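Side project, low priority. Logging it here so it doesn't get lost.
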Amino acid sequence: MKEYLNIELKGINKDGKEQNFALKDFHGQKIVLYFYPKDNTSGCTQEACDFRDNMNRINTKAQVIGVSPDSIKSHIKFQEKQSLNFPLLSDPENILSKMFNAWGEKSMYGKKYMGIIRSTFIINENGEIEKSWQKVKVKGHVDEILKYLN
């Protein structure tokens, strides 16, 4: 079994209830696992809202799960404020993000720092990575995912 399937993280389900999640819990389902830097920032909000607004087109094909280093408290506020309809996982120690190479060196205004590299992965029903997008550009990304899933 792939090691990343067994990592258990705290998160909130689509109804805003706190629970523990492991990717193995979704065995038999296709997953759109996306890593984003921070709740309630412009790009991350746009990406989450794009998923939310297209959920009726996505959820017949896959389960969407968002992951960031933010706390459960932050996720709850983000989910409530944006009416998000999918689980958000909290990965403050970047355990899962490192396994998916979604944690690394970034650069802003010439300054280098470590952070979440916006990334998306399609995990098939057997828990294998089927498709990945690294250094995602938010605009049009959900359409790319839908095109792939169709």
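Brief comment: The first strand starts at residue 8 and ends at 12.
Revisit when time allows.
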